[in-house]
Amino acid sequence: MRIIIQADHEKASLWTAGYIAGKISGCNDKPFILGLPTGSSPLSIYREFIKMHKEGKLSFKNVRTFNMDEYVGLEASHPQSYHYFMTENLFKHIDIDQKHIHILNGMAKDPEKECKLYEEAMAAEGGIDLFLGGMGSDGHIAFNEPGSSLSSRTRIKTLTEETKTANSRFFGGDPSKVPGTALTVGVGTVMDAREVVIIVTGRSKARALRAVVEEGINHMWTLSCLQMHPEAIIVCDEEATEELKTKTVRYFKDIEKNAVIN
Ligand code: GLP
Questions:
Q1: pLDDT digits (tens, 9 = 90+) for 23-81
Q2: Active-site residue 102, yes or no?
């Protein structure tokens, strides 16, 4: 696992946007299959993608996206749905083909079938090239809450109180307004991506980052699955590293100083 430590959230976002833009451009005209998250963590990355696109430096014409998750029971037009979030914060500003955008339908009459079809759609594209993600304060990836199977696939999940409280800031501060369930890719789905890049910034993520990086693989911190991934990068800021050992921080900084790839 690579750990890239940047001074702050903006610098971590710029690094991540530049890294992914390089991968997209490097594909030339071949399809690039990109997994995407929502939440506040990726917002500056999306802003940078839009800026690069407006400056003519990045095209999404060959990009096909699969979002990680969606709340159950929210229409795509609901301002807190992840459909709405993605349209407003990325898709409407770039040149992606609408038919290349995939987001789980939280209104599906048959959620199980919806999840199965989603997995099939990813497989039909040849799998995910790069899954970008964030991390919940309890170490979750997508909506794979503590205790999720590390080999789970796309399915319906019940959200924990910690997640509902964290996400209530988007629902007028009231955790009871946050939907209790979501459709989410599984830990196994993320692990199948050829590459996984996770952005983790801010002090509120420090406890979970320590568990994910310094402790063993554990279903109570589902992002710790990354320890088994051959091509995983965590991009973080200094604040998020506050609970890591000084030695761990120094070690990863040293390695990156001499990194051949950047
Ligand atoms: C939600 C999303 C996750 C996201 C997490 C952290 O639970 N399902 O994909 O990583 O929130 O959100 P934030 O980036 O706002 O801290």
A1: 999 998 899 999 999 999 999 999 999 999 999 999 999 999 999 999 999 999 999 99
A2: no
Chain segment 76-107, per-residue pLDDT in tens: 999 999 999 999 999 999 999 999 999 999 99
Question: Is residue 138 annotated as part of the catalytic site, yes or no?
Answer: yes
What is the identity of the amino acid at 85? F
Q: Which of 69, 114, 119, 195 is catalytic?
A: 69
Q: What is the 3-class SS of 19-78, one letter each residue? A: HHHHHHHHCCCCCEEEEECCCCCCHHHHHHHHHHHHCCCCCCCCEEEEECEEECCCCCCC
**Could you say which of 70, 140, 195, 237 is catalytic?**
140
> 6 is written with which tokens?
């940047």
CA-based R_g, the chain, Å: 17
Closest CA to 94 of 9, 17, 183: 17
In what side-by-side order are the strands of the sheet with 181-184? 69-71, 181-184, 155-158
Q: Tell me, what's the pLDDT at 260?
A: 61
Q: Give the distance (Å) from ligand 1 centre to CA of residue 38.
A: 6
Which SS3 state, helix, strand or coil, does residue 208 take?
A: helix
Enter the pTM of the model.
Answer: 0.96
